[in-house]
Write a structure and sequence with these properties.
Number of helices: 9
Helix content: 10-25%
Shape: globular
Radius of gyration: 20 Å
């Protein structure tokens, strides 16, 4: 059930493309104006408060559900007829990239890096500097691309060239019906490499298979089926307080166990953690990862590069290996 509250917008703190950070009755809230219309102080609104009331950590914030003052009778996107989140109370029409023409039948060997956490994306892109890279967001964390401050920073640093929302994800430069067509669209738009990642946050159940990071495995499997080169961004940590994520995370282990040996597995040289028992392991020089990531947002579960360096170095290794696979 939806947990909705009625309230009044008491502040608009920040507005960027597709996102507004506001306060409703003094409580922080996120709004997506492209869905619910513009928002101003004093607006009468409905807010979904369930995640905050469940105290869901980094994802536990309020989300504006409807703006009763200026968000009613909004028109659909011109020319759109394919629904995101179909048959739910928040379905909305989005024009999909597949509707604008044919797609290539193959990725033609283009490398695809699969990230099981959004915080891996910045180091991966840093290693791909100078390459035309497309970003595909896959379900498993946040669905709106507008929520990602990392994507905005990568654009500002001219590391990310275009974005695609796959499946339920939305708000890309173009959206796609599924991860297969999203990867094909990326190649059609001239990508020399693709980074497929879940959005901020992650669905988790504390089980080996029941988590959003499996979406990275689905993207990598799609890349292999379509003739791309699949590269796994390993989730490694020396300092995660949870034993299941210390060393090589059980999330990454689950993805690799289903790969059939078809994924490249980049291992950061010098990492003290035990390397995975998987086919395709390649040792990668990451000695310059800090310099390459200068100015980029590096944070994972509140830990930065000095707190958990091998987490970021491992992601950088994935980008560097992918760069070496570009034809």
């Amino acid at each position: 059930m939806l947990t909705l509250r009625r309230g009044t917008v008491t502040a608009v703190r920040e507005e960027v493309a597709g996102l507004a950070r506001i306060e409703v009755d003094g409580t922080p809230c996120v709004a997506y104006p492209d869905l619910t219309g513009p928002v101003e102080e004093g607006d009468d609104v409905l807010v979904n408060v369930q995640a905050r009331e469940l105290e869901l950590g980094s994802g536990g914030f309020d989300v504006l559900h409807a703006n009763l003052s200026r968000g009613l009778d909004l028109a659909a996107e011109p020319g759109a007829h394919v629904m995101k989140l179909p048959y739910t109370p928040i379905q909305f029409a989005v024009r999909h990239g597949e509707e604008d023409g044919g797609l290539p039948e193959t990725l033609g060997g283009v490398p695809v890096v699969g990230c099981s956490l959004h915080s891996q994306a910045a180091p991966v892109f840093a290693a791909l500097r100078g390459v035309r890279v497309g970003y595909v967001q896959v379900p498993g964390g946040a669905l709106p691309l507008a929520l990602s401050d990392t994507v905005r920073a990568l654009r500002a640093h001219e590391l990310l060239h275009f974005t695609i929302g796959a499946g339920a994800c939305f708000g890309g430069d173009v959206d796609a019906a599924n991860v297969h067509s999203a990867l094909a669209l990326a190649v059609a738009r001239g990508a020399e490499a693709v980074v497929a990642s879940i959005g901020p946050g992650i669905v988790g159940t504390e089980t080996r298979l029941g988590h959003g990071g499996m979406a990275a495995g689905e993207a990598l499997a799609a890349a292999v089926r379509l003739g791309g080169r699949a590269v796994t961004a390993l989730r490694i940590s020396e300092h995660d307080p949870r034993e299941r994520h210390r060393g090589l995370s059980h999330h990454t282990d689950a993805v690799l166990s289903l790969s059939g040996g078809s994924y490249a597995v980049p291992w950061p040289e010098g990492c003290p953690v035990e390397s995975p028992a998987a086919d395709g392991v390649t040792v990668v020089d990451v000695s310059d990862w800090r310099e390459a990531c200068t100015g980029l947002p590096l944070s994972h579960m509140g830990r930065g590069p000095d707190d958990d360096p091998w987490f970021f170095a491992a992601a950088f290794a994935a980008g560097r290996l992918a760069r070496g696979l570009i034809a």
